[in-house]
Protein backbone atom coordinates (compact mmCIF):
# COMPACT_ATOMS: atom_id res chain seq x y z
CA UNK A 1 0.00 0.00 0.00
CA UNK A 2 1.45 3.26 -1.11
CA UNK A 3 1.76 5.87 1.55
CA UNK A 4 1.51 9.44 0.52
CA UNK A 5 3.18 11.99 2.64
CA UNK A 6 2.11 15.58 2.32
CA UNK A 7 4.85 18.06 2.86
CA UNK A 8 3.79 21.56 3.72
CA UNK A 9 6.26 24.13 2.59
CA UNK A 10 6.59 26.95 5.01
CA UNK A 11 8.18 30.11 3.80
CA UNK A 12 10.49 31.70 6.26
CA UNK A 13 9.84 35.40 6.40
CA UNK A 14 12.58 37.50 7.86
CA UNK A 15 11.36 39.82 10.50
CA UNK A 16 12.12 43.44 9.72
CA UNK A 17 13.79 44.93 12.74
CA UNK A 18 13.57 48.65 13.22
CA UNK A 19 16.59 50.23 14.85
CA UNK A 20 16.17 53.53 16.68
CA UNK A 21 19.71 54.69 15.92
CA UNK A 22 21.97 54.59 12.89
CA UNK A 23 25.74 54.72 12.94
CA UNK A 24 28.32 55.10 10.15
CA UNK A 25 31.06 52.46 10.19
CA UNK A 26 34.24 52.63 8.10
CA UNK A 27 36.18 49.47 7.30
CA UNK A 28 39.84 48.91 6.58
CA UNK A 29 40.90 49.95 3.06
CA UNK A 30 37.43 51.39 2.40
CA UNK A 31 36.97 54.91 1.10
CA UNK A 32 33.46 55.57 2.37
CA UNK A 33 31.52 54.57 5.51
CA UNK A 34 28.48 52.30 5.60
CA UNK A 35 25.35 52.70 7.70
CA UNK A 36 24.37 50.13 10.36
CA UNK A 37 21.56 49.98 12.88
CA UNK A 38 21.99 49.81 16.64
CA UNK A 39 20.05 50.04 19.88
CA UNK A 40 22.89 51.79 21.74
CA UNK A 41 22.83 55.55 21.80
CA UNK A 42 26.27 55.94 23.34
CA UNK A 43 28.38 54.82 20.36
CA UNK A 44 30.92 57.56 19.72
CA UNK A 45 33.32 58.29 16.90
CA UNK A 46 36.43 56.06 16.92
CA UNK A 47 34.81 53.11 18.69
CA UNK A 48 35.72 49.67 17.33
CA UNK A 49 32.64 47.53 16.63
CA UNK A 50 31.89 44.10 15.18
CA UNK A 51 29.27 44.12 12.40
CA UNK A 52 27.68 41.50 10.20
CA UNK A 53 28.20 42.12 6.48
CA UNK A 54 27.54 40.19 3.30
CA UNK A 55 30.99 38.62 3.56
CA UNK A 56 30.71 37.74 7.26
CA UNK A 57 31.85 39.22 10.54
CA UNK A 58 34.12 42.24 10.22
CA UNK A 59 35.70 44.77 12.54
CA UNK A 60 35.09 48.42 11.71
CA UNK A 61 35.50 51.86 13.24
CA UNK A 62 32.61 54.20 14.00
CA UNK A 63 32.99 57.24 11.74
CA UNK A 64 30.41 59.47 13.46
CA UNK A 65 28.27 59.52 16.54
CA UNK A 66 25.01 57.58 16.54
CA UNK A 67 22.02 59.52 15.15
CA UNK A 68 18.32 59.09 15.76
CA UNK A 69 16.51 57.62 12.76
CA UNK A 70 13.18 59.28 13.55
CA UNK A 71 14.63 62.69 14.38
CA UNK A 72 16.73 63.08 11.25
CA UNK A 73 14.40 61.06 8.99
CA UNK A 74 17.19 58.62 8.05
CA UNK A 75 16.83 55.53 5.94
CA UNK A 76 16.41 52.41 8.02
CA UNK A 77 19.67 50.36 8.03
CA UNK A 78 19.34 46.67 7.09
CA UNK A 79 22.40 45.30 8.95
CA UNK A 80 22.97 45.59 12.68
CA UNK A 81 25.97 46.26 14.89
CA UNK A 82 26.67 42.96 16.69
CA UNK A 83 28.73 44.30 19.59
CA UNK A 84 31.50 46.59 20.60
CA UNK A 85 34.83 44.95 19.77
CA UNK A 86 36.44 43.16 22.72
CA UNK A 87 40.12 42.62 23.41
CA UNK A 88 39.89 39.14 21.85
CA UNK A 89 38.26 40.59 18.72
CA UNK A 90 41.03 43.14 18.33
CA UNK A 91 43.72 40.48 18.85
CA UNK A 92 42.13 38.21 16.24
CA UNK A 93 41.89 41.19 13.87
CA UNK A 94 45.64 41.81 14.12
CA UNK A 95 46.46 38.12 13.69
CA UNK A 96 44.31 37.99 10.57
CA UNK A 97 46.55 40.60 8.93
CA UNK A 98 49.56 38.29 9.27
CA UNK A 99 47.59 35.30 7.99
CA UNK A 100 46.35 37.31 5.00
CA UNK A 101 49.94 37.97 3.90
CA UNK A 102 50.75 34.27 4.12
CA UNK A 103 47.61 33.31 2.18
CA UNK A 104 48.45 35.89 -0.48
CA UNK A 105 51.93 34.40 -1.03
CA UNK A 106 50.55 30.86 -1.18
CA UNK A 107 47.92 31.81 -3.74
CA UNK A 108 50.47 33.72 -5.84
CA UNK A 109 52.78 30.69 -5.99
CA UNK A 110 49.93 28.41 -7.04
CA UNK A 111 48.87 30.85 -9.78
CA UNK A 112 52.42 30.89 -11.18
CA UNK A 113 52.63 27.08 -10.99
CA UNK A 114 49.36 26.66 -12.91
CA UNK A 115 50.29 29.51 -15.31
CA UNK A 116 46.93 31.23 -14.95
CA UNK A 117 46.35 34.57 -16.64
CA UNK A 118 45.21 36.49 -13.56
CA UNK A 119 46.64 39.27 -11.41
CA UNK A 120 46.11 38.76 -7.68
CA UNK A 121 45.34 42.00 -5.82
CA UNK A 122 44.53 41.15 -2.20
CA UNK A 123 43.55 38.47 0.31
CA UNK A 124 41.09 39.03 3.14
CA UNK A 125 40.02 36.90 6.13
CA UNK A 126 36.77 37.18 8.03
CA UNK A 127 37.00 37.78 11.76
CA UNK A 128 36.14 34.16 12.65
CA UNK A 129 38.52 32.85 9.91
CA UNK A 130 35.87 30.70 8.32
CA UNK A 131 36.42 32.20 4.88
CA UNK A 132 39.22 33.82 2.92
CA UNK A 133 38.48 36.06 -0.04
CA UNK A 134 40.95 36.51 -2.92
CA UNK A 135 40.41 39.43 -5.27
CA UNK A 136 42.07 39.30 -8.69
CA UNK A 137 42.08 41.16 -11.99
CA UNK A 138 41.81 39.41 -15.36
CA UNK A 139 40.84 40.39 -18.87
CA UNK A 140 38.99 37.16 -19.58
CA UNK A 141 37.29 34.43 -17.65
CA UNK A 142 39.74 32.17 -15.78
CA UNK A 143 39.25 28.47 -15.06
CA UNK A 144 40.46 28.27 -11.44
CA UNK A 145 38.92 24.93 -10.40
CA UNK A 146 42.32 23.32 -9.93
CA UNK A 147 43.46 26.38 -7.99
CA UNK A 148 40.52 26.06 -5.59
CA UNK A 149 41.42 22.46 -4.79
CA UNK A 150 45.02 23.29 -3.94
CA UNK A 151 44.13 26.37 -1.87
CA UNK A 152 41.45 24.48 0.07
CA UNK A 153 43.93 21.69 0.92
CA UNK A 154 46.52 24.16 2.24
CA UNK A 155 44.42 26.85 3.95
CA UNK A 156 41.75 24.52 5.47
CA UNK A 157 38.90 26.99 5.11
CA UNK A 158 36.31 28.21 2.63
CA UNK A 159 37.87 29.81 -0.46
CA UNK A 160 36.25 32.54 -2.54
CA UNK A 161 37.79 34.05 -5.68
CA UNK A 162 36.32 37.28 -6.96
CA UNK A 163 37.14 38.85 -10.33
CA UNK A 164 36.93 42.65 -10.63
CA UNK A 165 37.44 45.18 -13.39
CA UNK A 166 39.66 48.20 -13.86
CA UNK A 167 37.20 50.53 -12.12
CA UNK A 168 36.97 48.31 -9.06
CA UNK A 169 40.74 48.15 -8.92
CA UNK A 170 40.99 51.95 -8.98
CA UNK A 171 38.40 52.05 -6.20
CA UNK A 172 40.50 49.70 -4.06
CA UNK A 173 43.86 51.33 -4.75
CA UNK A 174 42.67 54.95 -4.77
CA UNK A 175 44.17 57.99 -6.45
CA UNK A 176 43.90 61.68 -7.29
CA UNK A 177 41.88 62.73 -10.32
CA UNK A 178 42.78 65.42 -12.84
CA UNK A 179 40.58 67.87 -10.88
CA UNK A 180 42.98 67.60 -7.92
CA UNK A 181 40.54 65.77 -5.66
CA UNK A 182 40.24 62.16 -4.59
CA UNK A 183 38.48 59.86 -7.05
CA UNK A 184 34.69 59.91 -6.86
CA UNK A 185 34.45 56.12 -6.61
CA UNK A 186 36.40 56.21 -3.34
CA UNK A 187 34.60 59.15 -1.77
CA UNK A 188 30.88 58.60 -2.33
CA UNK A 189 29.95 56.38 -5.31
CA UNK A 190 28.21 53.11 -4.48
CA UNK A 191 27.87 51.83 -8.05
CA UNK A 192 29.39 52.66 -11.42
CA UNK A 193 27.31 54.41 -14.07
CA UNK A 194 27.42 53.60 -17.76
CA UNK A 195 29.56 56.26 -19.46
CA UNK A 196 29.60 56.72 -23.25
CA UNK A 197 31.45 59.02 -25.62
CA UNK A 198 28.11 60.61 -26.62
CA UNK A 199 28.09 62.38 -23.25
CA UNK A 200 31.29 64.18 -24.20
CA UNK A 201 29.79 65.09 -27.58
CA UNK A 202 26.68 66.54 -25.94
CA UNK A 203 28.89 68.68 -23.70
CA UNK A 204 30.92 69.77 -26.76
CA UNK A 205 34.22 68.60 -25.32
CA UNK A 206 37.31 67.79 -27.34
CA UNK A 207 37.27 64.08 -28.12
CA UNK A 208 40.69 63.42 -26.60
CA UNK A 209 40.55 60.02 -24.92
CA UNK A 210 43.58 60.73 -22.74
CA UNK A 211 41.95 63.82 -21.21
CA UNK A 212 38.54 62.19 -20.88
CA UNK A 213 39.88 59.07 -19.11
CA UNK A 214 40.27 58.69 -15.38
CA UNK A 215 42.72 56.79 -13.19
CA UNK A 216 41.18 53.48 -14.22
CA UNK A 217 41.71 54.14 -17.94
CA UNK A 218 37.96 54.35 -18.60
CA UNK A 219 35.85 57.43 -19.31
CA UNK A 220 35.54 59.66 -16.25
CA UNK A 221 32.45 59.22 -14.07
CA UNK A 222 31.95 63.00 -13.85
CA UNK A 223 30.81 63.07 -17.49
CA UNK A 224 27.52 61.67 -16.19
CA UNK A 225 26.89 64.44 -13.65
CA UNK A 226 26.01 67.25 -16.12
CA UNK A 227 24.83 65.12 -19.01
CA UNK A 228 21.12 65.56 -18.25
CA UNK A 229 21.46 69.34 -18.02
CA UNK A 230 23.26 69.60 -21.35
CA UNK A 231 20.65 67.41 -23.03
CA UNK A 232 17.89 69.76 -21.87
CA UNK A 233 19.77 72.83 -23.10
CA UNK A 234 20.45 71.55 -26.63
CA UNK A 235 17.12 69.77 -27.03
CA UNK A 236 15.48 70.65 -30.37
CA UNK A 237 18.58 72.38 -31.77
CA UNK A 238 20.15 71.18 -35.06
CA UNK A 239 23.45 69.41 -34.70
CA UNK A 240 26.80 71.05 -35.13
CA UNK A 241 28.02 71.43 -38.76
CA UNK A 242 24.48 70.91 -40.07
CA UNK A 243 22.85 73.27 -42.60
CA UNK A 244 19.80 75.35 -41.74
CA UNK A 245 17.67 77.88 -43.56
CA UNK A 246 17.26 81.21 -41.78
CA UNK A 247 15.40 84.17 -43.33
CA UNK A 248 15.68 82.68 -46.82
CA UNK A 249 19.43 82.01 -46.70
CA UNK A 250 21.34 78.77 -46.14
CA UNK A 251 23.77 78.74 -43.23
CA UNK A 252 26.00 76.19 -41.57
CA UNK A 253 26.21 75.89 -37.78
CA UNK A 254 29.94 76.17 -37.13
CA UNK A 255 30.02 76.67 -33.34
CA UNK A 256 27.75 76.38 -30.29
CA UNK A 257 28.10 77.65 -26.72
CA UNK A 258 25.73 75.85 -24.40
CA UNK A 259 26.63 77.97 -21.37
CA UNK A 260 25.72 81.24 -23.14
CA UNK A 261 22.93 79.65 -25.18
CA UNK A 262 24.34 80.96 -28.45
CA UNK A 263 25.11 79.44 -31.86
CA UNK A 264 27.27 80.71 -34.71
CA UNK A 265 25.91 80.49 -38.27
CA UNK A 266 28.08 81.11 -41.34
CA UNK A 267 27.82 81.16 -45.10
CA UNK A 268 29.85 82.76 -47.89
CA UNK A 269 28.27 86.16 -47.38
CA UNK A 270 27.74 86.73 -43.66
CA UNK A 271 28.13 85.46 -40.12
CA UNK A 272 25.28 85.40 -37.58
CA UNK A 273 25.07 84.75 -33.85
CA UNK A 274 21.66 83.49 -32.74
CA UNK A 275 20.25 82.43 -29.41
CA UNK A 276 19.04 78.88 -28.93
CA UNK A 277 15.40 79.99 -28.61
CA UNK A 278 15.49 81.88 -31.90
CA UNK A 279 17.34 79.03 -33.56
CA UNK A 280 14.62 76.58 -32.52
CA UNK A 281 11.78 78.80 -33.74
CA UNK A 282 13.04 80.34 -36.98
CA UNK A 283 15.80 78.06 -38.31
CA UNK A 284 14.70 75.24 -40.61
CA UNK A 285 17.04 72.24 -40.94
CA UNK A 286 18.01 71.47 -44.53
CA UNK A 287 19.60 68.24 -45.69
CA UNK A 288 21.48 67.83 -48.94
CA UNK A 289 21.50 71.57 -49.71
CA UNK A 290 24.64 72.85 -51.38
CA UNK A 291 25.53 76.49 -50.79
CA UNK A 292 25.97 78.12 -54.21
CA UNK A 293 28.28 80.95 -55.18
CA UNK A 294 27.69 84.48 -54.02
CA UNK A 295 24.87 86.23 -55.93
CA UNK A 296 25.86 89.31 -57.99
CA UNK A 297 23.52 92.27 -57.88
CA UNK A 298 22.43 93.77 -61.24
CA UNK A 299 24.88 96.37 -62.43
CA UNK A 300 27.65 95.08 -60.23
CA UNK A 301 30.76 93.77 -61.94
CA UNK A 302 32.04 90.37 -61.07
CA UNK A 303 35.41 90.55 -59.38
CA UNK A 304 38.00 88.31 -60.87
CA UNK A 305 40.66 87.10 -58.50
CA UNK A 306 44.00 86.43 -60.11
CA UNK A 307 46.23 84.02 -58.29
CA UNK A 308 49.95 84.28 -58.97
CA UNK A 309 52.19 81.35 -58.23
CA UNK A 310 55.84 82.30 -57.79
CA UNK A 311 58.45 79.66 -58.45
CA UNK A 312 61.58 80.08 -56.37
CA UNK A 313 63.66 77.99 -58.77
CA UNK A 314 65.20 80.60 -61.08
CA UNK A 315 66.77 77.95 -63.26
CA UNK A 316 63.41 76.58 -64.33
CA UNK A 317 62.09 80.02 -65.29
CA UNK A 318 64.80 80.58 -67.91
CA UNK A 319 64.53 78.85 -71.26
CA UNK A 320 66.85 75.89 -71.53
CA UNK A 321 68.50 74.99 -74.81
CA UNK A 322 67.60 71.57 -76.00
CA UNK A 323 70.46 69.14 -76.22
CA UNK A 324 70.51 67.33 -79.49
CA UNK A 325 70.72 63.58 -79.25
CA UNK A 326 72.18 63.30 -82.73
CA UNK A 327 75.89 62.55 -82.89
CA UNK A 328 77.98 65.36 -84.36
CA UNK A 329 80.09 64.63 -87.45
CA UNK A 330 83.60 66.06 -87.46
CA UNK A 331 85.77 66.14 -90.57
CA UNK A 332 89.38 65.33 -89.73
CA UNK A 333 92.49 65.54 -91.82
CA UNK A 334 95.25 62.95 -91.45
CA UNK A 335 98.78 64.01 -92.16
CA UNK A 336 99.84 60.49 -92.91
CA UNK A 337 97.76 57.99 -94.75
CA UNK A 338 98.71 54.97 -92.64
CA UNK A 339 98.86 56.76 -89.31
CA UNK A 340 96.69 55.37 -86.53
CA UNK A 341 94.70 57.61 -84.22
CA UNK A 342 96.24 58.13 -80.83
CA UNK A 343 93.05 58.52 -78.77
CA UNK A 344 91.14 55.67 -80.41
CA UNK A 345 91.98 52.07 -79.84
CA UNK A 346 90.40 50.83 -83.08
CA UNK A 347 91.71 51.32 -86.62
CA UNK A 348 89.99 53.96 -88.66
CA UNK A 349 89.21 52.78 -92.17
CA UNK A 350 88.14 54.76 -95.12
CA UNK A 351 84.48 54.25 -94.21
CA UNK A 352 83.00 56.31 -91.41
CA UNK A 353 82.61 54.48 -88.13
CA UNK A 354 80.79 55.30 -84.94
CA UNK A 355 83.11 55.33 -81.95
CA UNK A 356 81.78 55.62 -78.42
CA UNK A 357 84.07 56.87 -75.71
CA UNK A 358 82.88 55.88 -72.25
CA UNK A 359 84.62 57.74 -69.51
CA UNK A 360 83.81 57.39 -65.83
CA UNK A 361 82.95 60.60 -63.97
CA UNK A 362 85.16 61.45 -61.04
CA UNK A 363 83.60 61.77 -57.63
CA UNK A 364 85.37 65.10 -57.17
CA UNK A 365 83.38 66.75 -59.97
CA UNK A 366 79.79 67.65 -59.31
CA UNK A 367 77.15 67.23 -62.03
CA UNK A 368 76.80 70.26 -64.24
CA UNK A 369 73.56 72.15 -64.64
CA UNK A 370 71.31 71.97 -67.68
CA UNK A 371 72.50 75.33 -69.00
CA UNK A 372 76.16 74.28 -68.87
CA UNK A 373 75.46 70.99 -70.66
CA UNK A 374 73.47 72.76 -73.31
CA UNK A 375 76.24 75.30 -73.92
CA UNK A 376 78.84 72.53 -74.19
CA UNK A 377 76.76 70.63 -76.69
CA UNK A 378 76.32 73.78 -78.76
CA UNK A 379 80.08 74.47 -78.79
CA UNK A 380 80.79 70.88 -79.80
CA UNK A 381 78.37 71.02 -82.72
CA UNK A 382 79.68 74.31 -84.09
CA UNK A 383 83.39 73.62 -83.68
CA UNK A 384 85.38 73.50 -86.87
CA UNK A 385 88.87 72.12 -87.36
CA UNK A 386 90.89 74.10 -89.93
CA UNK A 387 92.53 72.24 -92.75
CA UNK A 388 96.28 72.50 -93.11
CA UNK A 389 97.57 73.07 -96.62
CA UNK A 390 100.16 70.71 -97.90
CA UNK A 391 100.01 67.15 -98.99
CA UNK A 392 96.99 65.44 -100.38
CA UNK A 393 95.35 64.48 -97.20
CA UNK A 394 92.76 61.78 -97.06
CA UNK A 395 89.56 63.06 -95.55
CA UNK A 396 88.00 60.78 -93.01
CA UNK A 397 84.62 61.18 -91.34
CA UNK A 398 84.64 60.05 -87.71
CA UNK A 399 81.68 60.28 -85.38
CA UNK A 400 82.69 60.95 -81.78
CA UNK A 401 80.39 60.90 -78.71
CA UNK A 402 81.66 62.95 -75.81
CA UNK A 403 80.84 62.66 -72.11
CA UNK A 404 81.86 64.89 -69.26
CA UNK A 405 84.17 67.85 -69.54
CA UNK A 406 86.87 66.30 -71.75
CA UNK A 407 86.27 66.33 -75.51
CA UNK A 408 88.20 63.99 -77.74
CA UNK A 409 88.09 65.50 -81.19
CA UNK A 410 91.43 64.44 -82.51
CA UNK A 411 91.47 61.27 -84.60
CA UNK A 412 95.21 61.21 -85.01
CA UNK A 413 98.30 63.31 -84.97
Keywords:
single chain, 5 domains, disordered N terminus, 23% helix, five-stranded antiparallel beta sheet, 413 residues, GMP Synthetase, Chain A, domain 3, alpha+beta
Indicate the topology.
Layout: E1 21-26, E2 34-38, E3 48-52, E4 57-62, E5 67-68, H1 69-72, E6 81-84, H2 87-114, E7 119-125, E8 131-137, H3 145-155, E9 158-164, H4 166-173, H5 184-187, H6 197-202, H7 209-212, H8 227-233, E10 243-246, E11 249-257, E12 262-266, E13 271-275, H9 276-282, E14 284-286, H10 314-317, E15 329-333, E16 353-356, H11 370-382, E17 395-401
Parallel strand pairs: 8-9, 16-17
Antiparallel strand pairs: 1-2, 1-4, 1-5, 3-4, 3-6, 7-8, 10-11, 10-14, 11-12, 12-13, 15-17
Helix pairs in contact: 2-3
Please give a quick description of this structure.
Helix content is 23%, strand content 22%. The protein is of the alpha+beta class and 413 residues long. 13% of the residues are buried.
Tell me about this structure.
There is one protein chain. This protein is an alpha+beta fold and 413 residues long. The chain has 5 domains: 21-85, no CATH class; 91-164, GMP Synthetase, Chain A, domain 3 (2-Layer Sandwich); 172-232, no CATH class; 234-286, SH3 type barrels; 320-339 and 353-358 and 365-386 and 393-403, no CATH class. It is 23% helix and 22% strand. The protein contains 11 helices and 17 strands. It has helices at 69-72, 87-114, 145-155, 166-173, 184-187, 197-202, 209-212, 227-233, 276-282, 314-317, 370-382; strands at residues 21-26, 34-38, 48-52, 57-62, 67-68, 81-84, 119-125, 131-137, 158-164, 243-246, 249-257, 262-266, 271-275, 284-286, 329-333, 353-356, 395-401. The strands form 4 sheets. Strands 1, 2, 3, 4, 5 and 6 form a 6-stranded antiparallel sheet that branches. Strands 13-12-11-10-14 form a 5-stranded antiparallel sheet, with helices on one face. The radius of gyration is 47 Å and the shape is flat.
